[in-house]
Design goal:
Elements (H helix, E strand, L loop, with lengths): L24 H11 L13 H11 L3 E4 L6 E6 L2 E10 L2 E6 L4 E6 L7 E7 L3
Length: 125
């Protein structure tokens, strides 16, 4: 199964944005999971990476670690703590809403390899 993402590329980044015009990293993951037929919980995204990291660690119990597979959610470090998510697309690429580039973009995993904590799928509470 292939999920179209071309309509998402270049959409602006904004904290707590859930689409369809703007996204933060969690909003984009929610949209990608929705397109894959999976409904995941929504959280108000803190703007401080330390608070984002605490929220992610607390909610990780609802996720199962998996091998790298298309549409798995990538849990990544920014600074020194896990505080960013994206979705693996296959072929060494992932999509994410990047605060630094201020938009949704596709990037090659090789530039992020040292920051990837793991790949996950939602299993619920």
């Amino acid at each position: 199964m292939s999920i179209s993402v071309s309509d998402l590329i270049g959409k602006p980044f904004e904290y707590n944005a859930r689409g369809p015009e703007k996204y933060d990293c969690w909003g984009l993951v929610m949209e990608m999971q929705r397109r894959n037929g999976i409904k995941i919980p929504d959280y108000e995204s803190p703007t401080a990476w330390q608070d984002i990291s605490k929220l992610m660690r607390r909610e990780l119990v609802q996720w199962e670690r998996v091998d790298q597979e298309p549409y798995s959610v990538m849990y990544m470090k920014l600074a020194t703590q896990p505080s960013h998510v994206g979705v693996y697309l296959g072929f060494g690429k992932f999509i994410h809403a990047s605060e630094s580039s201020e938009m949704v973009r596709i990037e090659r995993i090789r530039f992020w390899e040292n920051n990837i904590v793991g790949y996950y799928k939602y299993i619920g509470a």
